[in-house]
Amino acid sequence: xxxxxxxxxxxxxxxxxxxxxxxxxxxxxxxxxxxxxxxxxxxxxxxxxxxxxxxxxxxxxxxxxxxxxxxxxxxxxxxxxxxxxxxxxxxxxxxxxxxxxxxxxxxxxxxxxxxxxxxxxxxxxxxxxxxxxxxxxxxxxxxxxxxxxxxxxxxxxxxxxxxxxxxxxxxxxxxxxxxxxxxxxxxxxxxxxxxxxxxxxxxxxxxxxxxxxxxxxxxxxxxxxxxxxxxxxxxxxxxxxxxxxxxxxxxxxxxxxxxxxxxxxxxxxxxxxxxxxxxxxxxxxxxxxxxxxxxxxxxxxxxxxxxxxxxxxxxxxxxxxxxxxxxxxxxxxxxxxxxxxxxxxxxxxxxxxxxxxxxxxxxxxxxxxxxxxxxxxxxxxxxxxxxxxxxxxxxxxxxxxxxxxxxxxxxxxxxxxxxxxxx
Length: 423
Prior knowledge:
By secondary structure, the chain is α+β, with helices and mostly antiparallel strands. It is built from 17 helices and 13 strands. The relative contact order is 0.10.
């Protein structure tokens, strides 16, 4: 079965669930009824994505963390896609590194500790005693994903439902190229090292170290991170831990582009692990750097001006000038519309002091962004697509953590207020 056949099966599942609903419940429908239908479609999508992996699994993962209605069937796809047989994985390693994993490593765990859309992760120990993880690309997934990326409709799904309809051809090409880049683990290794260097010395954010001699285009070996998942922290962490984690992810998602000009365009809850050190402060490990890029300095500076405008409550026009300079503003007459004002208000909410960032707020930010785009007041040119995809995705991860925290202060610590000196 190919991806399109699997997608048809998901559509039939949704149609069949709706038909059963009409025959057995109030045919006018309700939010609860809609959730039942969504859950059934999600269950079938998760099953098909687990079988096919690759492009369909990436779409399903994205749907899982963009979903604000509470469906859970897709959440396991963040790191629990059904694994490939150990022999297939061993052949990929031997093909790239010249020896099977049992010879390359002093200890090799045949059962993966995580499995995602393009590859799975195995625990191992090097001959010098270091505990590592080895990310191995599924055999054949590269050709399948490249074929998927030739379909513009599929690439729109990878953008996320909130922004997909607003993309032009250049933006679609940019997103497709970025996802193709995920197939080269050497590029991911280099990106991981750039992020680690940028955040070197940070008390909270941590990054694995690449073991270059045991890595290749399809194999990535790195030091092992430990800790709890974001889902576990969200469900069982106390308020202080959730506050620390939410602030750390905010600093990473907002600070990496604004301060360091680095962008990880594929944030999802499976890309973080949380540990707690002896003094009680949280450590957040940042994982998976397949879809990354470096922002031109001009793009970074213009993006900063947007947030300086949000921080500067004495100059309400500064934000609007900032979005115009950044290239987000499609029409100046849209600034007076309800769609624009709702988006501006939503974006500003965490910048007014301590703020409770929950799933409802993440949904509000995503939905107001979509309305502003749909109304034609905003645009997402190619150079900004991945930046805002990352920002809205990061907002969803923070919303899952569900914490009250001083996000404004964190942003000021990162970039300052941008206030111009009086002359």
